[in-house]
Hints:
There is one protein chain. The chain has one domain: Coagulation Factor XIII, Chain A, domain 1 (Distorted Sandwich), CATH 2.70.50. The longest helix has 4 residues. The chain is globular, with a radius of gyration of 16 Å. It has 1 helix and 10 strands. About 5% of the residues have low confidence. About 0% of the residues lie in helices and about 30% in strands.
Amino acid sequence: xxTSALILAAGATLASAHYTLPSINSDGTWVxxxxxxxxxxxxxxxxxxxxxxxxxxxxxxxxxxxxxxxxSSVKVSVNPxxxxxxxxxxxxxxVPEGQDVNTWDPTGAVWFRIYAEQPKFGSQLTWLSAxxxxxxxxSCIAPGKYLMRNEHIALHTAGSRGGAQxxxxxxxxxxxxxxxxxxxxxxxxxxNINYPIPTSYKNPGPATFTC
Length: 211
C-alpha cells in the first residue's frame, strides 16, 4: 500500500461564519496543521487575490507531518463547526524532492483538488454543517510528501462581489496557484443563494482529481 506523508497548514474557508480548521486526525488544536492568522478571532479571508488565500498561515513549520495511506481518509476538524452555507474543498500539493515538508513554500501552480462538496437542492441550497469532514486520499496518489489545503467557503453574503468568506488550513492533474485559482466573479463565489434559489452550483477551482 502506498503511503504519503501529508502536512497541513490552516487556511481559509469561503464562508461568512467564523471558525478555524485546526487539526487533522486529532481532537487537539493545530495538530499537523500550521497555525492560521485567524486562530484568535476566527476571522476569514475575503480577497481571492491575496497571498493569504493560499493558507492564511501565521508562521511556517508545524507540529509534525502525518503519514497516511493512499486510498484512506483523513478527518479535518472545524472549530466550532462550519455553520454557514457553502462548500468544503480540499487540495494537495506535492513537495519537490529535496525540500522539507515543514518549510516548503507552495507558490505557483502546484495544487490539485481532491474533494469538492456539492449542495443539496430544494427550497434552499444546503451543505453539510459539520465539526469535521472525512476526506478520501485518492488511491493512485504517488508516495511522497504533500501539503494539504482545506477550505470552507461561506456564501451567505456572496451576492455581492467580495462577499464570500474563506476559512483555510493546510496541513498528473490540473495544477493551480493560490492566489490565481479563483476570481472574485467566479459563479461559485459571486452568487446569491437566497433568492431566486439556484438550481445548480459550480464549485470554484479546477476539475477534481480522479484516479
